[in-house]
């Protein structure tokens, strides 16, 4: 086959390129009546991809619900999903495609903090709203001109809640075990601070993720004989740490975050390994109808908070655009109207379709989604989040407290 | 659409710089540098930190190339006795060490938060036309580097380097300084990686340790393999082909009906693997073949040798 000469090779390459160019060019000649596009950059492959599939499904459900009641300003909405490959470099390429080719009004999803930080400048330069489920405090400190909305509670808030709950459970000596992330050290400082304020002690250890054993880290933690261990990792490393804690015979309390201790984890480890571990889940209000409706539509017993947030990213964008009755349907319109439909004195609605109908007839609406009440501070951080405290019991997560 | 193509073209330019470095070190020098991405990161951080300390951009970029080259030389000197797979493993590990250092030395690199707001040259002055400017600047640099490398590799230095690649002992017997040639080739590769990293950092304005993971190294090896590992033209054409493949697969995979998001994403990764397998099967020498040089001593010999120009390619693939 080596007689495939260079000319044929190049011609074939140019042919494929040309085909792709022409097909994408025809798409960019969007006219009135064509769908309003909402981009999603979510982790579908790679290390952070455990929620990618459900994020995409949840967004699809939001799309169907909005379009079932006529879409936004007489135009259907369309979700355009791009994979971030768990890599900021790939995410930047994906974001350029969404902003420049698809002309999306907003980008939702963006999960890992490094991915969000990487695509954020493109979004505010391109006047596109970025709705993120990342936690790192640094994100909303960027000069984003109001284009960033964060639906996930910040690291500081999550750390404080975990610390307070551990104290409430009667623990005195805390030890934190977590991978090197933008927030690992802040967790140690925040939670230790809470313990010291109540007369306890706190310490921590930051480990390298992707290891196959954390025996030495666990030994080091147990040397301090803590009565609560806070697990700051994601599912892959947390499952290994839990197994090593079990082998080492640790019998104290374990608390983690919803990105580490969740359904994926309870399926990945034997029930006796995860037994008794607590998990902090950012959540909607107790018995939220929106949440129940979403999980029944997805035919799942429960759903992680991040997929709920992605659902809300699509709904918030649609409602904001529907409220902006005049002017172009673009990112700036989303930014300027988003707060008006998610907070304030308007009628509290937790159903996307009902909220859209109310907005269309000019009503004041305060939309509360499956991920929470969705009220935003001036810097774009979400306010008034509830937390659900869950505990693993016989391999399943059971709600212990909402507050 | 145009701005997207300009962006993709600029990315192809970064990949081309990296590929040119890899052709020099690997294709011409036989040094498998799987730690390529480590040097990209080193260059990116050097330039970002210096520009943060208010040094002018041209100093930042030169420093990025110099620091990467210096670290590359030091690494190459330390592992001077390793070849082939062993060198590959060590360089792979070295890139990981650099990434961990970037993650943990928070006082310098802000850890895994990354450095944001890296200034781009003339961005505020140029406004809308900045992406075009960066595209032209990147490809001008690629052109200059390719021209200089072309001159270098045609010179006696290039011939000696290829001799080292083909058989170190023969090169040594012929009086060539094997170590010095290896250091030079590795250093050039590292310097170009550092420069590409610096260009990338100032273009996207944000870097974090997670940006510099092994995936990029694999992309560049794919580029060079597709283009022809010994040829500078192959590096440039391969980079354009790779970016076209990466970006075109978005549109093609999304157009296939009946797939969910995860399947589409997986299909894209799959397409890249299949491309590599196809290229290795159908055209293992890449788009541009290795050229043989005539010695200039016995011009008549070439015609009579039936396997002239073929044998060497097959042998070299090992």
UniProtKB/TrEMBL annotation, chain A:
Ranges of residues in domain Leucine-binding protein: 35-342
Keywords: Amino-acid transport, Signal, Transport
Pfam families cross-referenced by the UniProt entry: Peripla_BP_6
Example of a GO biological process term: amino acid transport
InterPro entries: BCAA_transport, Leu-bd, Leu_Ile_Val-bd, Peripla_BP_I, TAT_signal
PANTHER family to which the protein is assigned, alphabetical: LEUCINE-SPECIFIC-BINDING PROTEIN (PTHR30483), PERIPLASMIC BINDING PROTEIN OF ABC TRANSPORTER FOR NATURAL AMINO ACIDS (PTHR30483:SF6)
Recorded family membership: Belongs to the leucine-binding protein family.
Name of this chain's protein: ABC transporter substrate-binding protein
Organism ancestry: Bacteria, Pseudomonadati, Pseudomonadota, Alphaproteobacteria, Hyphomicrobiales
TrEMBL record, chain B:
One Pfam family this sequence matches: BPD_transp_2
Transmembrane portions of the chain: 6-27, 34-55, 61-79, 86-101, 132-153, 183-201, 207-226, 233-256, 262-280
Keyword line: Cell membrane, Membrane, Transmembrane, Transmembrane helix
GO molecular-function term, one example from the UniProt record: branched-chain amino acid transmembrane transporter activity
Membrane topology: Multi-pass membrane protein
InterPro entries: ABC_transp_permease, LivM-like
GO cellular component: plasma membrane
Compartments, record wording: Cell membrane
Protein name per Swiss-Prot or TrEMBL: Branched-chain amino acid ABC transporter permease
Organism: Bradyrhizobium rifense
């Amino acid at each position: 086959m080596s007689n495939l000469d260079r000319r044929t090779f190049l011609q074939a390459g140019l042919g494929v390129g040309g085909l792709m160019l022409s097909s994408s060019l025809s798409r960019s000649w969007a006219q009135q009546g064509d769908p309003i596009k909402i981009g999603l950059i979510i982790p579908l492959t790679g290390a952070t991809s455990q929620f990618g599939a459900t994020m995409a499904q949840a967004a699809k459900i939001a799309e169907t619900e909005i379009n079932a009641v006529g879409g936004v300003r007489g135009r259907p909405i369309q979700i355009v999903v791009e994979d971030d490959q768990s890599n900021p470099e790939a995410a930047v390429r994906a974001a350029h495609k969404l902003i420049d080719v698809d002309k999306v009004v907003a980008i939702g999803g963006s999960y890992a903090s490094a991915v969000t930080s990487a695509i954020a400048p493109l979004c505010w330069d391109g006047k596109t709203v970025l709705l993120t489920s990342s936690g790192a405090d640094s994100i909303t400190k960027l000069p984003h001109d109001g284009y960033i909305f964060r639906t996930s509670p910040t690291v500081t808030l999550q750390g404080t809640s975990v610390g307070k709950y551990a104290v409430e459970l009667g623990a005195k000596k805390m030890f934190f075990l977590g991978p090197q992330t933008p927030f690992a050290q802040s967790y140690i400082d925040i939670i230790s601070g809470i313990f010291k304020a109540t007369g306890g002690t706190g310490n921590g250890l930051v480990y390298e993720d992707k290891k196959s054993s954390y025996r030495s880290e666990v030994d080091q933690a147990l040397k301090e004989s803590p009565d609560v261990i806070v697990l700051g990792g994601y599912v892959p490393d947390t499952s290994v740490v839990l197994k090593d804690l079990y082998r080492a015979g640790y019998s104290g309390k374990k608390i983690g975050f919803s990105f580490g201790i969740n359904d994926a984890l309870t399926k990945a480890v034997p029930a006796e390994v995860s037994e008794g571990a607590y998990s902090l889940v950012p959540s909607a209000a107790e018995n939220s109808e929106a949440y129940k409706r979403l999980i029944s539509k997805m035919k799942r017993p429960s759903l992680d908070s991040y997929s709920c947030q992605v659902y809300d990213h699509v709904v918030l964008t649609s409602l904001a655009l529907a409220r902006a009755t005049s002017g172009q349907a673009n990112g700036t319109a989303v930014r300027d109207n988003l707060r008006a439909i998610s907070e304030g004195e308007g009628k509290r609605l937790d159903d996307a379709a009902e909220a859209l109908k109310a907005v269309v007839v000019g009503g004041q609406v305060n939309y509360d989604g499956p991920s929470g009440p969705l009220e935003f501070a001036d810097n774009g951080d979400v306010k008034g989040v509830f937390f659900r405290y869950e505990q693993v019991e016989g391999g399943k997560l059971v709600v212990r407290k909402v507050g | 659409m145009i701005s997207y193509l300009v962006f993709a073209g600029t990315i192809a330019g970064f990949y081309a710089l990296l590929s040119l470095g890899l052709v020099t070190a690997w294709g011409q020098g036989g040094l498998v540098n799987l730690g390529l991405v480590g040097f990209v990161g080193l260059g990116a951080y050097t330039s970002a930190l210096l520009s943060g300390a208010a040094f002018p951009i041209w100093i930042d970029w030169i420093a990025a190339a110099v620091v990467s080259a210096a670290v590359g030389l030091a690494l190459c000197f330390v592992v001077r006795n390793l070849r082939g797979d062993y060198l590959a493993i060590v360089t792979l590990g070295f890139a990981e060490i650099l990434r961990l250092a970037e993650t943990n030395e928070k006082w310098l690199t802000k850890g895994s938060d990354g450095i944001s707001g890296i200034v781009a040259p003339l961005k505020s002055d140029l406004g809308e036309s900045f992406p075009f400017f960066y595209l032209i600047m990147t490809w001008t640099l690629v052109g200059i580097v390719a021209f200089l490398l072309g001159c270098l590799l045609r010179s006696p230095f290039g011939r000696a380097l290829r001799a080292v690649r083909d058989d170190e002992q023969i090169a040594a017997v012929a009086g060539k300084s094997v170590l010095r040639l290896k250091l030079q080739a590795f250093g050039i590769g590292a310097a170009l990686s550092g420069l590409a990293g610096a260009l990338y950092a100032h273009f996207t304005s944000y870097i974090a340790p997670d940006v510099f993971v092994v995936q990029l190294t694999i992309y560049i090896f794919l580029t060079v393999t597709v283009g022809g590992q010994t040829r500078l033209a192959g590096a440039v054409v391969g980079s354009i082909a790779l970016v076209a493949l990466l970006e075109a697969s978005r549109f093609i995979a999304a157009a296939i009906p009946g797939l969910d998001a995860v399947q589409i994403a997986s299909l894209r990764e799959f397409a890249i693997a299949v491309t590599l397998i196809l290229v290795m099967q159908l055209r293992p020498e890449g788009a541009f073949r290795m050229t043989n040089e005539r010695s200039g001593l016995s011009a008549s010999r070439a015609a009579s040798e039936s396997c002239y120009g073929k044998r060497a390619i097959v042998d070299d693939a090992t």
